[in-house]
Structure formats: C-alpha cells, structure tokens
Amino acid sequence: MSQSLNPIRYEWKDIPWKKIQVKIFKLQRRIYRASLSGDVKQVHRLQRLLMKSWYAKYLAVRRISQDNQGKKTAGVDGVKSLTPAQRFQLINSMDFKSRSRAVRRVWIPKPGKAEKRPLGIPTMHDRALQALLKLALEPEWEAKFEPNSYGFRPGRSAQDAIEEIHIAICQKSKFVLDADVAQCFDKINHDELLRKLNTFSLAGRAIRGWLKAGVMDGDNLFPTPEGVPQGGVISPLLANVALHGIETFILSQYPHNKKGQNWKPQLIRYADDFVVLHPDLKVVEECQTLISDWLKALGLELKPSKTRIVHTLNPVGEHQPGFDFLGFNVRSYPVGRTHSGKNNSKLTGFKTIIKPSKANIKAQYRKIAEHIESLKAAPQQRIIRDLNPAIRGWSNYYSTVSSKAIYSKLDFLLWKKLWRWAKFRHPKKGKRWIANRYWLIDKGEGWRFSDGKHKLLRHIETPIRDHIKVKGKATPYDGNWTYWSQRRGTYPGVSTTVSTAIKRQKGKCAECGLHFHMDDVIEIHHLDGNHRNTKMENLTAIHRHCHDRIHGGSGNLSTQLSTHVKGQSGEKPDERKRSRPVLKPSMGGDLHA
User: Fold this and answer.
1) Where are the beta strands (DSSP E) in 158-290?
2) What pTM, to 2 d.p., does this model score?
3) Are the beta carbons of 160 and 491 closer than 8 angstroms?
4) Cα 419 from Cα 402, distance rounded (Å)
5) Distance CA 201, CA 208 (A)
6) d(C-alpha 117, C-alpha 81), whole Å
7) DSSP code at position 64
8) How far is CA 91 from CA 57, 61, 231, in A?
9) What DSSP character marks residue 226?
10) CB–CB of 53/34 below 8 Å?
11) Which three-class secondary structure string do you get for 463-513?
12) Burial class of residue 294 (count of CB atoms within 10 Å of its CB; 0-12, 13-18, 19+)
C-alpha cells in the first residue's frame, strides 16, 4: 500500500484525479462482480482493501467537501467549507476506530405542508468516513438490489419508476395499493439492519457507532435507539438495504401463474414509497397484509393516512380513479371511437395519462408567487435570476410526461403575478409603458419578461420527450460505459445545454477525460470566460471538482489543457487524446490486490 500524497509536493488542484477514479472504479467493479457471483469472502477482502486505500480516502473527501450540496453545512463541531489544507488534514485523520460524534438536528419544512422533516447533519469527519464506507458497500448491494427499486441508487430516478408504472397499466387497468412507510428513517430497527448488512466486523462497528451516536437538538443530546439519521452520506443506502427483499417476498407468495392471467402482483418502490399493482382486488388486499407483517420485523408500519387502495380507471368506494406517486398523477381515462368519454354507450377502451399532481402544481405556483411578493422593491434582474432555476428544475422533472397544458397554465399565472408586480412599482404609468418597460413587446418578442440582457424562462419552452426506463438490474458498476454515457445525456433533470455538450463530448468530461458517472455533478464551463457568450462552441460540460480546479488556477480551459500536457509530456495540445499523462513515481501502486 503506497503512502499518502504529500501535501508539500502536491496541491489539491494538481492531484491526478483521473488515475484515482479509474483505480477506485476498477476495484469497485471487482466488488460488484464478486457479489454477483456470491463470493462473500472475496467481497469483504476487496472492501477492506478499498477502505485502507489512500486513493479512496482522497476521493471520499473530495465528494463531501466539493461535490456534495451540503459542503457548507456544519455538524456539531462547527466545521464546514474545508480549504485544501484542511482536506489534507482530514484525510490523514480518517480512522474507523475513532469515536462517532452526535449528529446536529435541523428541521426543514416539507414542500406544501405545515409539518417539518428532521435532518441529522454529521460532522465533516464522520461524513468523510461514511463516504469512504459507501464506496465499498454500494457495489456489493447494487449486485443484490431488486430490479424495481429506484430510489437513491446510481443511474436510477423517479422517472424510471413512473415509466415502469406506465408500462404495467397502459394495456390493462389495475387495482393499486398506494402505500407509504411511516417514519421509515426514524424507526428502522438497528439489530435487524445490521443483520441484513452482514458485513465484516470493522464496517459493522462503524455503522453501529453512527447509528447509536445520538442527536444534538439545540443544547440537548438525545439517544438514538432506533432509526437512521436523514442527512448522512450513507443513510439512503442503509434505508435501501433495510427495505431490500420486500419485492422478492411478495412474489414468493404467488409462485404459480394461472393460465392466461397475469397472476403475480407487481411492486414498484422508490425509497420508502411504493405501489403494488394487480387486476384482482383481493390480491392487492392480501399484499397489504403481507407487507404490514413483513415490515414489523424492521420496526416499521404503513402510514394509514397515506395508504389506500384505488383503481386506475374506475372509482373504488369514495376514492376516485388514479393516484399520486412521486409528485405525478397516474390515471387511465375512458375513451370511445371519437376519443371522448362523454357518451358511455360508445366507450371502447381507455388511455393512460400521467401528468404533474395538483398538489405539486399548487406548490410550484405558491413558491414562485411568494418569492415575487417578497421582492417588490428588487430590480427586475433579481427576479429573473431567482426564478429561472426554480422554473428550469420543476419543468425538467416533469418533462417526460403530459405536462404541456400545465406548463402553459403556470406561465399564464406567472404573467399575471409579474403584471401585478410591475403595476405596483409604477402606479402612475400607463399599461403600454409598463408593458414596454418590462417585456420585449416593442422589440418584437412579445410578452417576454426581460431587462434587455437577461430573460425569464418559460415552463412551456421545456421540450417534452419520452423517457427510456433503465434496463432491469443494470448499474454503472457493470462497466457498460457505452450504455451509461449515452443515457447520461438524456437523464431527467439535465438541461438541454448540458445534454448537448455531453453528446458532443461523447459522454466524457472535457477536463479530465473520464466518462461521466450517473451521480457526478456536471457544470457548464465558458471557454472564453464570458458568461454572456452562450454559443455551444464556447460551452463544455465538466465535473464540478474539475470546474473548481480550473477557476482555482489561471486561464481558461483550453489554455490549462495545453499547459497541463506540455508540462507533463512535452507534446502538442492536439495530441492530448492519444497520450497518457505521466504520473510521478510516488503515486503508483495503491490498489494492487
């Protein structure tokens, strides 16, 4: 095992991250393959090797201090926003034998609800150790997880779960058990979770220490005899492990298919939210009982207020057809020869339509309207700058379903709100003056809210495209980069600019040359440094940490690439793709098993 990178010889931005990522991924792929073949001893041996690796420690610290959105959020020790020197210190202090610190309790409001969700924020030291252990455990469990589990897994999204539901009900209407596990993260039984993990002693003791560390709420320390703290790096993986097996259990209760019938129920899960689909009401009711009994071993139960049985096409008791899942409304509508359901005597079938749920539409409008109200005295540029990310993110999330009519309605409501904002600012001006002052009517672009330099996005401008569901049990750890690099360019939530840049770069980062992983944070870099120049020739897609390194140095991307190559191999910049970077001798021999 090689020694750590010497911070005196290496600056953080000069560390050869490409070599580190390649080495770690190769080891993770070996863990995945060993787990797939059922070789538990080999899995544990490779995991211990990875956890001792300095390369893995550097990668774990980079993820929690640069890539993670919570890098500026402190734990109970108040440490946050690490400098490069502090990152080196953290790497040298990483030891699984150290005692875990309590997590800091933070309460955040649930979208559109009065109640709040508790988050547990670990210290930066514990976050780094959790990220390191996750690097070792995730490949093992990606080989085990069930095909219809979509939440908090690399390469999978809510859109995959919705598309699987659409495939299941588009040709045959079915009864649906729409269920939610009550306080899933807060009630998981620790002993049962550790039994299911079945990992080696060092990892088991570390996980138990994090689970039992306690919660600091204000000045009060509370014990944690059960549950997994939301907010930890490894918490989503542990929750998925706890709920793993529920789909297999349900299918095992219906071992034989009846001739000509789809007898086996279908369970689709996204974290602790799931649905069970089947054409027979009795089977769905049986599944509800079976799932309730299965969850008791974990100390969990179904939430009565969010658990109900409905039908995709017909009413069931007081429940109307359809259901909401992950912010989408799923329903089948009766149609006839003229595609109209008004004349029941001519109905011949149904059509399944998925669109944004009413609750999420109201929440989006309320969020935008309240923000405009709070900025009555702010300049127009501030309005545009604050609203564009909210409009872009919400529209991209629903861009794979029937959302055009909803987009148009939201844009109209947004226009009305902006018109009131403009009239409030100029009560003595006429309507024509206000329209030409804040919209581009006199410039021939119609009701485009703009200050001349910046334009407000519209929901309706987001293109609607079909979503291709992830293949079966496919995972990025299987090493099929042709499949995953193509899929990354059409991943839900990726903007058109990023998607186009990824396709032009054939799925690779323009700075480090590595394929984009499904969990990588991708940013757009402007080659000439001018953020107003948005021509595609000036834009490249790169990792967030690569972006930090570029702006931490001098010059633009093309200049830095040229300097990087010349300084290492003496070759011309255009020969970079055909060359391998020359690494210093002290960097070699880290992961030879």
Assistant:
1) 175-180, 215-217, 220-222, 266-270, 273-278
2) 0.82
3) no
4) 28
5) 10
6) 24
7) I
8) 6, 7, 21
9) S
10) no
11) CCCCCCCCCCCCCHHHCCHHHHHHHHCCCCCCCHHHHHHHHHCCCECCCCC
12) middle
Least confident of 230-234, 326-330, 355-359, 523-527: 523-527
Copy the structure tokens of residue 174. 């079915």
Tokens (6 digits) for 339: 């595609």
Residues with Cβ within 8 Å of residue 207, at least 6 apart in sequence = 133, 194, 197, 199, 234, 238
- Residue whose structure tokens are 């993990």: 197
Residue 445: enclosing H or E segment and its boundaries? none
Radius of gyration of the chain from its Cα atoms, rounded to whole angstroms: 26
Nearest by Cα to 185 from 67, 105, 68: 105
Cα–Cα distance measured from residue 168 to residue 354, given in angstroms and rounded to the nearest whole number? 13
Residue 262 pLDDT greater than 80, yes or no: no
Q: Which long-range contacts does 185-188 make (Cβ < 8 Å, 24+ apart)?
A: 185/227, 185/228, 185/229, 185/230, 185/235, 185/239, 185/272, 186/118, 186/226, 186/227, 187/226, 187/227, 187/298, 187/299, 187/300, 188/226, 188/227, 188/228, 188/238, 188/239, 188/242, 188/298, 188/299, 188/300
pLDDT bracket for residue 380 (50, 70, 90): very high
At 149, give phi and psi (nearest 5°).
Answer: -105, 120
**In this model, does residue 583 exceed pLDDT 60?**
no
If one counts every other C-beta atom within 10 angstroms of the C-beta of residue 9, the result is 9
pLDDT tens for 150-206 read 999 998 999 999 999 999 999 899 999 999 898 888 899 999 999 999 999 999 999
Nearest residue to 265 via CA among 287, 246, 243: 287
Q: What kind and span of H or E run contains 349?
A: strand 347-356
